[in-house]
Specification:
mainly alpha; Ferritin; 9 helices; 2 strands; about 50% helix; binds 2-acetamido-2-deoxy-beta-D-glucopyranose; Ferritin-like_SF; G9964 protein
Length: about 290
């Protein structure tokens, strides 16, 4: 209910000027939610696959959607190649699982940008120009950090609105895998936290915080970096860890589709950009059908 109200609210506040927007409740179906989740998985799968192989998803996984632009085979250490390979396989499976569940209702993957989108987002977050995620281990981890936490919050947002038990079972099976991924990235970045991101002369901790701050601003105030000051104010010999972003009651943050779109579009849920230059495919895409 809160979920439907949030969508209706987004319509009234954000979309009133767009043709076809009505002050009415949108009916969000399971199909819409699964396609929305699949759009996010398409991005993750393209990023990891391209980084390890130099090319992305095949046309059956893309559902005949266009190949992503801007990615490259990454210059990674042997251990990170192994980690990225495991993550890629999970994400490809997620896209294919969702396609199988949706059947003929599955949409094609959307046009995705996995190159200059990162450069643009990092410039907004940190006033750093020319960032590219495929140069080094740490850049690759920072790139993945940008979207993995968003996926976790998107699944937590979508799951309570899913009606059918089999759909729920699928999303509930994917969500924790996304949380594992996010935790792997956060832990690896935490271990490298005091290193400088070259050539920008900024610590990994501070780089991550800048990305988190941007997501917090765009996506409903729900985000945390990987370190926090200790609650008791004491000094610790290494920055105090915050590997698990959570709401204070031990639960992952929950974002509405609108909040997710604002982040992945680069700031505004009604204006496609950043990772999705032409917007998401499927009914949850930031525009409302004219009718
Ligand atoms: C939208 O849904 C809410 C909650 O179900 C309801 O209270 C409200 O009257 C509905 N608004 C419209 C315009 O249908
Ligand atoms: C496309 O990739 C998937 C996942 O890696 C694989 O299972 C499938 O056989 C491939 N399809 C084609 C037509 O190559
Ligand atoms: C923590 O370290 C800072 C800088 O080294 C120092 O100014 C401060 O007094 C220390 N705080 C505590 C609680 O020890
Ligand atoms: C998003 O873009 C729309 C359409 O241009 C605009 O009306 C709205 O104010 C923007 N929202 C934010 C949060 O900037
Ligand atoms: C975007 O969503 C609207 C409203 O749900 C829908 O009519 C339109 O077809 C969607 N666009 C795409 C590309 O799926």
């Amino acid at each position: 209910m809160a979920f439907r109200a949030a969508l209706a609210g987004a319509c009234c506040l954000g979309l009133l000027l767009l043709a076809g927007c009505r002050a009415q409740n949108l009916t969000v179906t399971d199909t819409d939610l699964l396609n929305f989740a699949m759009n996010l998985e398409c991005l993750e799968a393209e990023y990891y696959s391209t980084a390890i192989n130099g090319y992305g998803l095949n046309s059956s996984t893309l559902g005949n959607g266009p190949p992503a632009v801007g990615g490259l085979k990454a210059n990674l250490s042997p251990e990170l190649i192994q980690i990225a390979t495991e993550l890629a396989n999970d994400e490809i499976n997620h896209v294919n699982d969702l396609r199988a569940q949706l059947g003929s209702a599955a949409v094609p993957c959307p046009q995705m940008d996995i190159g200059s989108s990162f450069t643009t987002i990092v410039s907004k977050a940190l006033n750093i120009y020319g960032f590219f995620p495929y140069n080094t281990d740490v850049n690759f981890l920072l790139g993945a950090f940008l979207f993995e936490d968003v996926g976790v919050t998107a699944f937590h947002g979508a799951i309570p609105a899913v009606k059918d038990k089999a759909n729920l079972e699928l999303l509930a099976g994917i969500a924790p895998v996304e949380a594992y991924h996010a935790a792997i990235l956060r832990t690896l970045l935490y271990q490298k936290g005091l290193e400088m991101v070259t050539p920008y002369n900024i610590r990994v901790f501070d780089f991550v915080q800048g990305l988190s701050n941007l997501r917090r601003k765009a996506g409903g105030g729900k985000d945390q970096g990987i370190v926090v000051p200790p609650a008791d104010g004491r000094n610790t010999s290494y920055p105090f860890a915050n590997l698990v972003p959570q709401d204070g009651a031990g639960k992952a943050f929950q974002r509405t589709p609108d909040e997710v779109l604002a982040i992945v579009y680069g700031g505004n849920s009604t204006q496609p950009g950043a990772f999705y230059p032409k917007g998401l495919t499927g009914a949850i895409n930031g525009t409302v059908a004219a009718s």
